[in-house]
What we know:
Blueprint: E1 3-7, H1 20-26, E2 31-33, H2 42-51, E3 55-60, H3 80-97, E4 101-103, H4 115-134, E5 139-142, H5 158-168, E6 173-178, H6 179-185, H7 189-196, E7 200-204, H8 221-231, E8 236-239
Parallel strand pairs: 1-2, 1-8, 2-3, 3-4, 4-5, 5-6, 6-7, 7-8
Helix pairs in contact: 2-3, 3-4, 4-5, 7-8
Amino acid sequence: MPRFAANLSMMFNEVPFLDRFALAAKAGFKGVEFLFPYEHPAAEIAARLKDNGLQQVLFNAPPGDWAKGERGMACHPGREQEFRDSIMRALDYAGALGCPRLHVMAGMVPPGVAQGTLTCLYAINLAWAAEKAIAQGVKCCIEPINQRDMPGYALTGIANAIQVIEAVGPDRLGLQFDLYHTQITEGDLVPRARAALPYIAHMQVADTPGRNEPGTGEVNWPFVFAQLDEMGYRGWIGCEYRPAGETLAGLSWFAPYKD
Length: 259
């Protein structure tokens, strides 16, 4: 049966961030993910996880200046040391939280940089990050993001991500297969998931087109989830969606998957 993790950056926004852990556990989730933990001490987050019997399954490495539109720096020339410092900071948090997966954002395509330069630097930075992460029992992930939500993002399409993973090594770098982004960009969710399964280290879900909870849009999620189970996916599926209303009111889709 699929294992779902509540995304605490998007869900349970009715309460402050540190109070969302208890609400997620009460709703029946066993795992959580979020975008960034860095505004809070790692020890405080770890205590919330322990107190509520939750597993931290994923978060993002620092993305640069998010408020100014930065979405990672892995492909940005001249920021190699900043990138490395950000990975080490993320790994400190991952160790404190017992988190096995770290999403490393590619970044927006920098102006005036040749595609070949961008691709090479991206792979080199990821190889360095993956090496440091694996030594601590953490696997880095990369996620293709659709151009409608994030125009100019440097990684789009499952095939492009797999090429990068093959270059770095699938044992060290995994695919973060986001069903929402994939549906918008490529469709054919089940065949694409099956083909990419050897590379998938984490999955995420939201319905399309509104990025709300499963059951609010165009996808037959019971069928998709059953197929993921049948093909042997045993990792976590992060619920990276914006509730259409109050979070608990939109969790009827989750009822069949509670332990």
